[in-house]
Design a protein that fits this description.
With 468 residues, the protein is an alpha/beta fold. The protein has one domain: Metal-dependent hydrolases (TIM Barrel, Alpha-Beta Barrel). Helices cover 23% and strands 20% of the residues. It contains eleven helices and 16 strands. It is globular.
Length: 468
């Protein structure tokens, strides 16, 4: 760990950093041969838009003062100064305002724990077996959840929705574009790989231990993972054996019986699904990395990761992201060592991939302010982070962890025109998202409240006095 960080941490915290071998990052996830439940998302038709004269944070590390951003055909067309106005374009004066990529929340349960929260809407945890790799969270999503609209008002254009964390393997996650829709397929981010939600620590052992079932301990958690990966490896071998026999002309060869649980685990072994691991403690994160080495898969990101600061160098060496809260702490024992400098410490090593997430329908509305809190605490600890670097915590790094960095997360020509115009420095507590664009179409305009998206569920509901 860097000397500046060593001076700030007790030596006892550094034991977990030692001795881990480097792991080469796998190739980019491959698209499955057959896409089921395909995205039906369509880019809205919109005229070219020139955002002129703002302070632009590109998400790729640059700050451009008095710069322009041109959106055309759903893409970022140009970024710089003095961009010419295309024919038929609308021009937005952004002088005195800031422009950033659309924010990305890497950890959300919007749509599966929707508002109003009642038992009929409790669709995030399939608490019937410690391993439910067969379930897909997208099959629980309720597009009418009003939280989608409130997240959009906070500048969030992309959401990663996951199953809950009761199970060792909770199932497949999905990436959504934050647009109003009747079906989840119409929100499904085109080209985004699914994730595999896994969880370690207290949640699985508490959920099942209270029922006098396994896993009831952390050692049973690990034994449970290993048993599943062994099954997946055998399923993969059986499939390869069948293909070998058929290639040799054996007409009597039979394919292994189709198993939805094992299909998901095999897809993760192949890198087609990105492993997203709920894990708090540094020792458990290091253990999971050893587990990944044992079975040959890649952990893309640890979620919550309140002790990631203890192994910041290890995570950077292994190209593993940490998606963290700014300051949530102490509501159970595995959060006891959480510190408010966590995000800054993870961001500090070269190649460190720090992300600020919400895990909350309230927190997602102020993801920019959560990042600001982490900036402030980092600066107080001697690790100042400039706005042009911190914006990556909720844009570029988040896109990297979701396998969509080639599509979104930065204001670079050719990428999706997911853009936010802020009333001021987005890391100010007073900042508001004035306009939000999704693929170049104006999705939210604070100056035109009647035009804001509204959930079908709220249509016909009487407005309370003092609210729109």
């Amino acid at each position: 760990m860097n000397r500046r960080i060593l001076a700030l941490l007790p030596c006892a915290l550094l034991a977990a950093c030692a001795g881990a071998p480097l792991q080469k990052a796998p190739a980019a996830p491959r698209e499955p041969a057959k896409v089921v439940y395909p995205s039906t998302y369509k880019v809205a038709v919109a005229p070219p838009t020139l955002i002129r004269g703002g302070t632009v944070l590109t998400g790729s590390g640059a700050r451009l003062d008095g710069a322009d951003v041109l959106l055309a055909d759903g893409r970022i067309a140009a970024v710089g100064r003095g961009i010419a106005v295309p024919p038929g374009a609308r021009v937005i004066d952004a002088q005195g305002r800031w422009v950033t990529p659309g924010l990305i929340d890497t950890h959300s349960h919007i749509g599966v724990y929707p508002s109003p929260y009642v038992q009929a809407h409790d669709d995030g945890n399939e608490v019937t077996n410690p391993v439910t790799a067969n379930v897909w969270v997208e099959h629980s999503i309720w597009p009418q959840d009003p939280a989608f609209a409130t997240a959009l008002e906070g500048g969030v254009t992309t959401l990663h929705v996951l199953p809950g964390s009761a199970n060792l393997v909770g199932g497949r996650s999905v990436v959504l574009k934050n647009v109003p829709a009747t079906t989840y397929q119409a929100m499904k981010f085109p080209g985004a790989p699914q994730g595999l939600k896994m969880a370690c620590g207290e949640n699985p052992k508490r959920t099942y231990g209270e029922r006098k079932q396994a896993p009831a301990t952390r050692m049973a958690n690990v034994a449970g993972y290993r048993a599943q990966w062994l099954d997946a490896q055998q399923y993969l071998r059986d499939a390869a054996d069948y293909e070998k026999k058929t290639a040799a002309g054996n007409k009597d060869a039979k394919p292994p019986p189709r198993d939805l649980r094992l299909e998901t685990l095999v897809a993760a072994l192949k890198g087609e699904l990105l492993v997203q691991m709920h894990c708090y403690r540094a020792d458990e994160m290091a253990l999971v990395l050893d587990l990944a080495d044992e079975f040959g898969y890649k952990v893309t990101a640890f979620h919550h990761a309140v002790e990631a600061y203890k192994i910041a160098d290890l995570l950077a060496e292994r190209s593993v992201c940490a998606a963290m809260w700014a300051d949530l702490w102490g509501f159970k024992m595995e959060l006891f060592d959480g510190i408010q400098e966590n995000v800054a410490f993870v961001a500090y090593p070269a190649n460190g991939c720090a992300i600020v997430h919400s895990d909350s329908p309230e927190g997602v509305q102020r993801l920019n302010q959560e990042a600001a809190k982490a900036m402030t605490r980092g600066a107080r600890a001697g690790l100042p982070v400039a706005p042009e670097a911190a914006i990556a915590w909720v844009t570029a790094n988040a896109a990297k962890a979701l396998g969509i960095a080639q599509l979104t997360g930065t204001l670079e020509p050719g990428k999706m025109a997911d853009v936010v115009i802020w009333s001021r420095d987005p890391f100010s507590v007073y900042a508001l998202a004035d306009q939000v664009f999704v693929d170049g179409a104006l999705a939210y305009d604070r100056s035109a409240p009647p035009a804001a998206p509204r959930s079908d569920f709220l249509l016909g509901q009487p407005a309370r006095e003092g609210t729109r």
